[in-house]
Structures are given as structure tokens and as C-alpha cells.
Amino acid sequence: MTALASETRVAAPAVETPSGKGRGDENFPVGSFLIRKDLRPHVHAFYRFARNADDIADNPDLSADDKVRRLARMGEVLEGAAGDDSPAATAMRRSLAETGTTAQHCHDVLRAFTLDATKLRYQDWDDLMEYCRYSASPVGRQLLDLHGESRDTWLASDALCSALQVLNHLQDCADDYRNLDRVYLPLDLMGEAGIGVEALTAPKSNPSLRRVIDRLLDSTDRLIIDAGKLPGGIAARGLRWESATIVALAGRLSRRLRRRDPLATRVALSKGDFAAALLAGIVRGRRPRSTNR
Fold first, then answer.
1. Run of H or E including 112
2. Residues of the chain with CATH 1.10.600.10
3. Tens digits of per-residue pLDDT, 8-51?
4. Total-model pTM
């Protein structure tokens, strides 16, 4: 009877709704060959966890309440709840056990994506940066913790991750509004420019929206300058090279967004950008250190 019940038991419905996006769709390398080989699976596990949580928050077919429930379930599985309905959380739990890293960074990204399910507008730059504290900063902090780096590096890492997040918001500003009614461009800047969020439905940016985008890029460029301090503070050579590469990529994407209109076309980095940034990152990261992990 027990065997029969086991054979006929129906698995719990999956809470994750993968979009099909992967590491190759990002603006930056995720667990590339520069990262220590033994740590790459753990970097990939964290990426998958965050990616699947993001996919839930961005799923237009789910209600806000359903998104919140699914994200909460991922957190429960992460903490050891029984069940096979969140494979990414199960894999992340194993990764945390193997590496001894904190689960806090995972819970922080769940907090951000729960916010995505319920919050559709941001009032000002500080409001946006508070969101980035949970949506973006944990990614860099997880990498640094995996490598045993000093938490003195967190400030510059947070700047880099926040810059990447804002750049991604600018890339996707039209789609976010059209598909999810979500606007990350601060309302105070749009109000000062005399426009509403409806400007994001146009086939191209009007001069007022262009000014808003450029002002956000000004603030983002200041973050990138602060992020430039990160590679010099990292002891692990591969991570130092990768962080320098990502700083270079952020600068390239910011410059491209200044020249091109994200409403009129998809503004993205090319393979050439990645190659040039990688070379610049390795060159910049080649410096003598007392510790070279």
C-alpha cells in the first residue's frame, strides 16, 4: 500500500516559471572562466536562484498575490522546507551548505523581487537606490563572500551592481512599462521634465525624456567611477580581473545609451565590447599583490 501510494503520489506544482533567459543574456559575465573552477558551480547556482525569482516577478500571467506566494515559497525551500517545487532554491540550499556562505543575499533578492510584484513606481533616485540595495548589491556581495574577500569591498561592489541595474532599467524602460506597468525612471525627474510615464509608449524618446535618461546616466556614471575602486581591493586574481571587466562593460553600455535611444531600438553590448572589456580588465587587474588566491 505504501509503495503504491508512493508510485501514484503527484508532485507539487512548480512555483518557478523560467523564462528561458540565461547567463548569456546578461550585460556582464556570470561565473566566467576567470572565476576559480571550484567556485563556478556556486556562482551559477546563485545566478539561477536569482534569475528564477526574477522570472516569477516579471511573469505577466501571474497576479501580484501569486508572485508574492511563489517567492515566499522559494525562501521556505531555501531554509529547508520539504518539497521539490523549487529546484533552484533546493540547489541554492545545497550550495550554501557546501560553501558556508550566508543565505542573507538570497533573501535580499527575494525581497527585491517581492517588491517588484507590488511596487510599480519609484519617486526619486534614493528610492531607486534602496531598491538596488536588494535587487543588485547582493549579487556582488555573494561573489565576494564566496571568495572570502574583505567586506571593505562591499561599498565599491554595491556601486557597480547598482550601476548595472540602472543601465538595465534604461535598456528595458519601454518594455517594463508596456508589459508590466512598471517604471523605474524616478517620477521626480519625469515631473521636472514635464512628462508622464506615458512618454515611454512612444516609438522614440522625445527631448524631455532624453533629458531624463541623460540625467540618470550622469548619476550612473558617478557610480561607475566609485566602482572603479573595486578591482584594486580584491585579492583573488580571477575575481579581480572579472570585476575590472564588468566595470569596463558598464562604462561602455552607459556611453552607448547616451548615443542611442532605448525606445527606438534595443541598446546592447556586442561581442566586440565583451572582448575589449575583457582585455582591459585583465590588463588593469595585473598588479602585484601579497595575496594571490
1. helix 104-118
2. 120-287
3. 444 568 999 987 776 656 777 777 888 999 999 999 999 999 99
4. 0.90
